[in-house]
Every structure is written in C-alpha cells, then in structure tokens.
Design goal:
The chain has about 475 residues and is of the alpha/beta class. The protein contains 16 helices and 18 strands. Helix 9 (about 255-265) packs across helix 12 (about 355-365). The protein is globular, with a radius of gyration of 22 Å. The chain starts with a strand and ends with a helix. It binds adenosine-5'-diphosphate and 6-O-phosphono-beta-D-fructofuranose (F6P).
C-alpha cells in the first residue's frame, strides 16, 4: 500500500467493522472477518471512496486492538486504535452521551463530563496525527462528523499545506441549545480549522455562523467567516444515496423473489416498514404507538396490516439506548399481546442488521415506509426507499424533523409528536390510490435521482478544491 494519498477521508469508523469473535489475523487485518459498519455516513461515503483512489482513516470497531493499514473492497484503510477506556469516554461518552443528544434538540438529556471531554480531545488528536501521516503534500483531507470536530484545527497545526473539508452528518443546533456546552468555544475553534465546513441544511450553516459571531466575535460576510487570516466557508450540501446501486439491486431476480416471500409471510397484509438504527432520535416508539392505536380504535384488524420494524443494534452500552430497547420491546409485546391473533402478529420486530439485498427487498415489499425521527440530520432510509421504487408504488410517511423533508416535499409529512396526526397520516398513506402514489413518487424520485450521493460528494469536493 502506498505511503501517502492525495485524497484522505477521516471518520470515526472505517467502512468495515471487525466481526467480534473472528480471528484477528495478526496486525494486518487480512485474516479477520469484516462487515459493513452501521449508519448513513458509511452508506454515503463508501461509494465515493471506491471511485477515488483515496485512503480512509478510522476506527475498526474493536477496542484494544492495533492493526496495520490494509485494503478491502477497493479501499485503502488506516485503522486508528481505541482502547476500552477511549470507547467508553470518547465514543460512548462525549460523542454519544453529550454531543449526540445536544445536537438532536436535547431529546435526551446530554451528559456533561470533564473526563469525557478530555478523552474527546485526546482521541481527536490521535486522528489528526494519523491523517497528517497519510496525507500527501497539498492533499485534500475530508473529515467527517461530530465525533471529530477538533480534528480540523489540530490537523491544520500539523499540516498547514493540506486542504481541509469537514462535513457534519447530523443537525447543528441553534445557539440557544449549543450555549449549554461547557466546551462550546473549543468546538467552534476546532471546526474553524477547516477551509469548508459543510452541513446538511442551510439553517445549520446559519446556526454555525451565528455562533461564531456571538461566541468568538468572528468577522463574517453572509456564510463566510474570517478567522486567523483565512476564509472559512460554511455551506449546506444535503447528502444522498447511491441510486444506481439500489436500482441494480432491486432489478436482481433473487431480490424480486424475496419480495414475494415477504408478502406471503405476512399473508397479504398491507406492509408498513420501519428501518433504523435503534436510536431514541428515530421516533420508533411514537410510530408504534400510533399503529397500535389504529387497532385499538377499530380502524385496522389483524391480518389487514402488519408493521415490520427492523432496528439495527446501536451504541448498546449507552444507558439511553438500553432504556429505549427495553421500552420498544415491551411496547411490541404489549401491542402484539393485545391486538395480534394466531398467525397474525401486528408488529414484526427484528433487532438485527440486514444485508443490502434484504433491505432492498423489504423496501420493495413495503406499501408504506414509515420514517418518523424526532430530529435527524438527513435520513438516508427515506431516500433509499424512494430510490428503490422505480415501480412508482408505495407511500412514504416522513417526519417534518428529518433533513430529507426539505427535499421530499411530496412525502406524507408528519409531526411525530402528534400521535393523532400520525394515525391519520398512516391511514391516508395506506389508502392512497395507485395514481396518487405514482404522482408523489415520481416527484420524489426526480429529486433523488438528480441529487444522488455522487453529486453530493462532487459538489462538496469541487467547492473545497476551488477555494483559493
Ligand atoms: P443514521 O445515519 O442515523 O444511522 P440514516 O437513515 O441516515 O441514519 O442511515 C442509516 C443507514 O443504515 C442507511 O443506509 C440504512 O440502509 C442502513 N441501515 C439502517 N438499518 C439497517 C439494518 N437494520 N440493517 C442494515 N442496514 C441498515
Ligand atoms: O450518521 C450519523 C452517525 O453517527 C455516523 O457518524 C455514524 O457512523 C453512524 O451514525 C452510526 O453510528 P455509530 O458509528 O455510533 O455506530
């Protein structure tokens, strides 16, 4: 593997995780078994990386293990180690118990711990060092997401020659919420090390500029900030999906066969589908509550409609995630106990990860896709559903609080906190005539096809490259 690269992606996770319990194959990663890492970031960046000959710097998902760089699936990977303590304090702690809830409208209470902050600084420094080592002179370095917000300024200190882009995949909170963070100035200064700071939506970029003005007294002109004799641009680039990959998948005969199997398995019931990481921002309990009430109120009968909820295990050692899992499992048990009949469970719940083929089959089998986050940077599941529905069938129920709602205007948009509104919207989506489904789907597909992930990456990177 060549020593340095002209294009470097830095993200908390590599696109693959080591499968626990498999042989670690020494330090070169080759004997180990790998699987795709969870979440939208990997879904979006992996196809871009395959097209550019870059290097991806990130954690390989196994604590206390040091691996040498290796290659997989056409990508050069540089593993950054994390000790068990780093995982607890930096990843589960500051990233996912502090920043994640704070940036998602404080839907769970953020933990403010100095020990976690210290670990965040230390691990960010380690990522910056690893990126500095692998970047060629004048390279483009693209840093991803909230786990690494200090890396831009740390890397600039180490390597002033490289061009630095940063993209935040999750929402960026308004001043009134961000103000809570004891280390608020340090985070902003960290991000200002980049030449281009990208957000999902224009509102997030505005929040960032406003905060830099108020907290750091930074000079600005519209969305350009003047900082330490440099211009730092804040811009929005709504992320998207690999439409070509999904269209190829749904055309496969084995995927089509699987669609028929799924439909048979639910006995011809109308299928509502949820696909999420098991996360409290995703509004899973709200959608199940609404669905259960439709049975309670007599709008639906067992056998008429079935909800398939796939929830990928996520951040399982963080307390809020454990509480949510218990809550959802109790709720599913209660709904099935009250309304299910032999052979007709009303909710089919799976706490597992699925292959892309299986997901594509589920998207095609679903009459109604239910995406109800309480807050979400974008939500790629909504766009994946649209990308798969070349048949122009199916209906998308989409939270107003997902970034995707700004683009998918013809979805059945809903406020997930409003359970009555959610019930009405689910019924409307279930009863939509094929012509109405097609009208809405056509408009949404136009948007997603014209703005796919390749365009997202091209627009971000050409904006970064053009910067003087
Ligand atoms: P987030 O980044 O918060 O996880 P997104 O909806 O933006 O949310 O992205 C989730 C990604 O993870 C999508 O590409 C989706 O297909 C994938 N995904 C979600 N749930 C599963 C699952 N159970 N099995 C496999 N992939 C999943
Ligand atoms: O897209 C948001 C995000 O937090 C990514 O940064 C992350 O890779 C993904 O979701 C999955 O989360 P985690 O890496 O914590 O499993």
């Amino acid at each position: 593997m060549s020593q340095v690269s002209e294009f470097v992606v830095v993200a908390n996770r590599l696109p693959v995780d080591r499968v626990p319990g498999t042989a670690n194959g020494g330090t070169n990663g080759e004997g180990a078994a790998w699987r795709r890492s969870p979440g939208g970031l990997v879904s979006a960046i992996a196809p871009v990386m395959r097209r550019r000959e870059g290097t991806w710097v990130g954690w390989h998902g196994a604590p206390d293990e040091v691996l040498e760089p290796f290659e997989t699936d056409g990508m050069k990977l540089v593993p950054v180690p994390q000790s068990s303590e780093d995982v607890e304090l930096y990843y589960e702690g500051f990233s996912n118990a502090t920043l994640w809830p704070l940036y998602h409208d404080v839907v769970a209470p953020p933990v403010y711990s100095r020990e976690m902050w210290d670990a965040y600084v230390k691990v960010n420094e380690r990522f910056a060092q690893a990126a500095a080592k692998v970047a060629a002179k004048g390279a483009i370095v693209w840093i991803q997401d909230y786990q690494l917000q200090l890396v831009p300024s740390m890397l600039r200190r180490l390597r002033p020659d490289v061009r630095i882009g940063f993209f935040l995949h999750i929402p960026f909170p308004p001043l009134e919420l961000f103000w809570q963070l004891p280390w608020r100035r340090r985070i902003l200064e960290g991000l200002l090390g980049a030449d281009l700071v990208g957000f999902q939506l224009p509102g997030a970029a505005n929040n960032f500029v406003r905060l830099c003005r108020r907290l750091l007294d930074a000079r600005y002109n519209k969305q350009d900030l003047f900082w330490e004799d440099r211009v730092v641009r804040a811009r929005s680039f709504p992320i998207s999906v690999d439409v070509g990959e999904l269209e190829d998948l749904v055309a496969q005969p084995h995927v089509q066969e699987r669609v028929d199997e799924i439909r048979n398995d639910v006995g011809g019931a109308t299928i509502l589908l949820g696909v999420d990481r098991l996360d409290y921002t995703k509004g899973i309990t709200q959608r199940l509550e609404a669905f259960g009430e439709l049975f309670r109120d007599g709008h639906l009968k067992p056998g008429q409609a079935a909800f398939i909820q796939i929830a990928t295990p996520s951040r399982e050692r963080v307390e809020q995630y454990q509480l949510l899992r218990d809550q959802i499992e109790q709720q599913v048990g209660r709904i099935n106990g009250e309304y299910g009949e032999i052979g007709y469970p009303v909710v089919n719940y799976m706490h597992t990860s699925h292959t892309r083929d299986e997901l594509a089959a589920l998207y095609l089998a679903a009459d109604v896709m239910v995406v109800t986050p309480l807050r979400d940077g974008m939500n790629l599941v909504a766009k994946e559903y649209v990308a798969c529905r070349a048949d122009l069938r199916g209906a998308l129920v989409l939270s107003e609080f997902a970034g995707a709602a700004a683009e998918l205007r013809r979805a059945y948009q809903v406020n997930p906190y409003d359970i009555d509104g959610l019930k009405e919207t689910l019924l409307a989506a279930m009863h939509a005539e094929p012509a109405e489904q097609a009208r809405r789907m056509r408009a949404m597909r136009k948007r997603v096809i014209e703005h796919d992930v390749d365009r997202w990456a091209r627009e971000f990177l050409s904006s970064l490259e053009q910067q003087a």
